[in-house]
């Protein structure tokens, strides 16, 4: 699927990417590298993408796993989702070391659970009460740190609780 995840489906947008550094790709021109090439792509909302996947799932407890790496657009995409309606969704996203206005605070405010994924594979719950812990975990300002977001109830929450018995908020 040659699409860009955005907050709405069907928009034609400019995608900026450096040939030598795929990790710098973004829809936000001000965040693009100086040598970025521009390409026009059509957006699909994460909600529509999830809806398409749900039509293909055969089990009620099947999960939809999304790796969301959309430099600068995380809040717009998360704002389209109601965690209460997406209990089978697990989203892997980045919170950048240089950001003190955490994407995670927005994710938690939206009603998702969040868990910091450490390099050793362990998860640490991050919630409204311990957002300052995220600052301590993000030790390198030049790096993006992986977190998981999932609804407070439903198949994803049940699987996370079974896999990682430590309370995930």
List keywords for this structure.
alpha+beta, 33% strand, 9 strands, four-stranded mixed beta sheet, 169 residues, globular, five-stranded mixed beta sheet, 5 helices
Could you please describe the fold and organization of this structure?
- The chain contains 5 helices and 9 strands.
- With 169 residues, it is α+β, with helices and mostly antiparallel strands.
- The protein has one domain (3-163).
Summarize this entry quickly.
The chain is of the alpha+beta class and 169 residues long. It has five helices and nine strands, in the order E-E-E-E-H-E-H-E-H-E-E-H-E-H. It has one domain.
Strand neighbour order, sheet with most strands: 5-6-9-7-8
- CA radius of gyration is 16 Å
Which residues form runs of ≥5 with pLDDT under 50?
none
Mean pLDDT, nearest integer? 81
Write the layout of secondary structure elements.
Blueprint: E1 3-6, E2 12-18, E3 21-26, E4 37-45, H1 46-54, E5 64-68, H2 74-78, E6 89-96, H3 103-109, E7 113-117, E8 123-126, H4 131-137, E9 144-150, H5 155-163
Parallel strand pairs: 1-4, 5-6
Antiparallel strand pairs: 2-3, 2-4, 6-9, 7-8, 7-9
